[in-house]
Amino acid sequence: MFKNFETAKRIRKEDPSAKSLLEVILLYPGYHVIGFHRVAHFFYKIKWYFIARLISNIGRFFTQIEIHPGAKIGRRPFIDHGGGVVIGETTVIGDDVLIYHGVTLGGIGKSSTRRHPIIGNRVIIGAHAQILGGLQIGDHAKIGAGAIILSDVPSNSTAVGLHK
């Protein structure tokens, strides 16, 4: 519960269109889906996979944001606008990450190794960016809108266009 309140406070602070904390808590789908995810992830960790997926699907129905219950998400994530975001099962997201609409954190194939990306702390991922495979995005990196990322991005750097 306190994790979600921290998230709401961060969104209120960083989104200039958010007029109040109550508005964020009641009306922001990116905030709501994190609540659904935290519950779904709990059930996923105790191997109640069906319940985890059910809760995840309810969250997707209400928010149009798909987060697999196996994904690990750090503190204070901000999914801004949100529609069309997809976060895969083995994705790991650090603290204070900002994700815009249409982003995919997806896998490539049925690899026996890590299939989805690891996103560092304080990363910004622009609208419709696609980060694919078991790669790593370093802390404080920026991923441009529409970028296709197929290889690691170092900390404190910016990646735009096709990055392979």
Task: Produce a short descriptive summary.
The chain is α/β, with parallel strands linked by helices.
Rg for CA atoms: 15 Å
Number of strands: 15
CATH class: Mainly Beta
Mean pLDDT: 96
CATH architecture: 3 Solenoid
Low-confidence stretches: none
Oligomer: single chain
Keywords:
UDP N-Acetylglucosamine Acyltransferase, domain 1, six-stranded parallel β-sheet, five-stranded parallel β-sheet, 4 helices, globular
Q: What does this protein structure show overall?
A:
This protein is of the alpha/beta class and 164 residues long. The chain has one domain: Hexapeptide repeat proteins (UDP N-Acetylglucosamine Acyltransferase, domain 1), CATH 2.160.10. Helices cover 32% and strands 20% of the residues. The chain has helices at 2-14, 21-27, 29-45, 49-63, and strands at 66-67, 72-73, 78-79, 86-87, 92-93, 98-99, 104-106, 118-119, 124-125, 130-132, 136-137, 142-143, 148-149, 158-159, 162-163. Helix 3 (29-45) runs antiparallel to helix 4 (49-63). The longest helix is centred in the N-terminal third of the chain and has 17 residues, at 29-45. It is globular.
Q: What is the strand and helix layout of this fold?
A:
Layout: H1 2-14, H2 21-27, H3 29-45, H4 49-63, E1 66-67, E2 72-73, E3 78-79, E4 86-87, E5 92-93, E6 98-99, E7 104-106, E8 118-119, E9 124-125, E10 130-132, E11 136-137, E12 142-143, E13 148-149, E14 158-159, E15 162-163
Parallel strand pairs: 1-4, 2-5, 3-6, 4-7, 5-8, 6-9, 7-10, 8-11, 9-12, 10-13, 12-14, 13-15
Helix pairs in contact: 3-4
